């Protein structure tokens, strides 16, 4: 096994600072978006205040990011001959939680979707979404499994198909109640599988049942069909199905280039639904302007660019696939959220990574970034290269010394004629 050196790099430092900046922005904007004219004072029911909760979740997320960033990422690899496989155990636990949330009486329904499991006393109202855990466990397991089977991923029956079937189980179970996260898992999963060496025609062959499954999941819920039709013509029902999309565009447009000012937004006072969660990017554009929205997109662009650097410099195949999966998950979810807020795609309940209110998403995205940071910290050892260079230098110097110590060669002078 190759011994790797772990040390801070410009890539790992930039990733950490960028993620921390997005987390800090999230705390500020959730405080602003949670403002209400009828809300009780901040000191009353502190544990139930969404702004205070977001601050606490962000502190936990930062600690998790730093701790995971220091833990060796290769401990998640699949090791032959061992019964304890952390990536497999994490996958099984996540699947159990995802199934558990669908059982009536156990899973908690909020805003028409049964995606939460209660956590702690009901008076506090804490809960978590197992689908957020799936974003980490699927990336980790697929990276480990694809690295383990190696070139077998190019064989359809013994490599590619079993991998896709395992991914399909997760996508199907999650998609029953959360179509957006299921689509995200599917896209990221196929990206990892292709990067591992799978053939394109294998992907094309399995894309037909994947599309059929997506159509079925959309048609299974009437509200998903309604969202699709309202996206095509929001003005047809401005007070009903199209209300959310119209208000989102109004919120963005009212900020102009420089915004109304931090905390001075108007749409958050009962006009824009889900202003502190799924549509927080619209609040950012209203209060900080189009320039503020561009800066947020720029932070995500920096994060993706550094993720690409970490992937390209990863010393192992598992590290490369893990960095790719983490980068794709962050990038695609950010793109999906911004596309929904700008009414570029149909409305879907999926938050902006690190920024939207929500404990589970903030913490597990930070764990994913921590793994990305750890990959960026590991490099091939340079001791051998330095030693080899030093040996070559010493050899040259020794040759020069020996040459200088040899007696000079005297050439006899020609005798006069």
If you average the pLDDT, what whole number results? 86
Give the beta-strand count: 5
The gyration radius over C-alpha positions equals 27 Å
Strand order of the largest sheet: 2-3-4
- Straight-line distance between termini: 77 Å
Name the helicity range.
55-70%
Total helical segments:
13
Element-by-element helix/strand order: EHHHEEEHHHHHHHHHEH
Instruction: Give the overall form.
Output: globular
The major β-sheet equals: 3 strands, antiparallel
Strand content is under 5%
What is the number of domains?
1
Structural class: mainly alpha
| Low confidence ranges | 383-393, 409-417
Keywords, please?
417 residues, mainly alpha, three-stranded antiparallel β-sheet, globular, disordered C terminus
Can you walk me through this structure?
There is one protein chain. The protein is mainly α and 417 residues long. It has one domain (5-383). It is 63% helix and 4% strand. The protein has helices at 10-33, 50-70, 86-100, 130-149, 156-175, 179-195, 200-220, 222-232, 243-254, 280-313, 317-341, 359-377, 383-405, and strands at 5-6, 108-110, 113-118, 127-128, 378-379. It has a three-stranded antiparallel sheet. The protein has a two-stranded antiparallel sheet with strand order 1-5. Helix 4 (130-149) packs parallel to helix 12 (359-377) and helix 10 runs parallel beside helix 12. The protein starts with a strand and ends in a 12-residue tail after the last helix.
Write the layout of secondary structure elements.
Blueprint: E1 5-6, H1 10-33, H2 50-70, H3 86-100, E2 108-110, E3 113-118, E4 127-128, H4 130-149, H5 156-175, H6 179-195, H7 200-220, H8 222-232, H9 243-254, H10 280-313, H11 317-341, H12 359-377, E5 378-379, H13 383-405
Antiparallel strand pairs: 1-5, 2-3, 3-4
